[in-house]
Amino acid sequence: MYVQQGDCLLKHIDKSPKGLKPVKGDLMFKGQNHHHRLRGKFKMGLLDGKTYVISNGAELFHEEHKTIKIPMGAYRLDHVQEYDHWLEESRQVID
Fold first, then answer.
1. What would the pLDDT profile of 11-64 be if each residue is shown by its tens digit?
2. Spatial contact of 52 and 17, defined as CB atoms under 8 Å apart
3. What pTM does this model have?
4. What contacts 81, CB < 8 A, 6 or more positions away?
5. How far apart, in Å, are the Cα atoms of 87 and each of 58, 79, 92, 94?
6. Lower Cβ count inside 10 Å, N or C end of the chain?
7. pLDDT band for position 91 (cuts 50, 70, 90)
8. Residues sharing a CB contact under 8 Å with residue 88, sequence separation 6 or more, in sequence order
């Protein structure tokens, strides 16, 4: 299961990883002009350079997208990739 909003992708994981370093604030992912932010009840943390979100009734908000409810559970932040067949390369989608 996953939650996607533009280029921001939250992939569901079985359980919250041990040893997360808490992240303060609500900024999930910084876009070019607008940012993906969390609202509601959640915890966010870092581990080994990756961002994790534990949702307990959170929503993903962005000015240019519909607000999405994040089901309760643990998620790892990832980014949508696109593949350019002409250049034969993949790149991160920038929203």
1. 999 998 999 999 999 988 776 677 889 999 999 999 999 999 999 999 999 888
2. yes
3. 0.79
4. 90, 91, 92, 93
5. 38, 20, 14, 18
6. N
7. very low
8. none
Distance CA 86, CA 38 (A): 36
Q: What is the pLDDT of residue 8?
A: 82
Specify which residues 10 forms β-bridges with.
3, 77
Tens-digit pLDDT profile for residues 79-89: 765 545 566 55
Question: What residue spans of the chain are helical by DSSP H?
Answer: none
The one-letter code for the residue type at 80 is V
Q: Which of 56, 54, 60, 73 is nearest to 9 (CA)?
A: 60
In angstroms, how far is the first alpha carbon of the chain from the final one? 22
Among 10, 94, 24, smallest CA distance to 60 is for 10
Give domain limits for the chain. 2-92
Tokens of 77: 């932040």
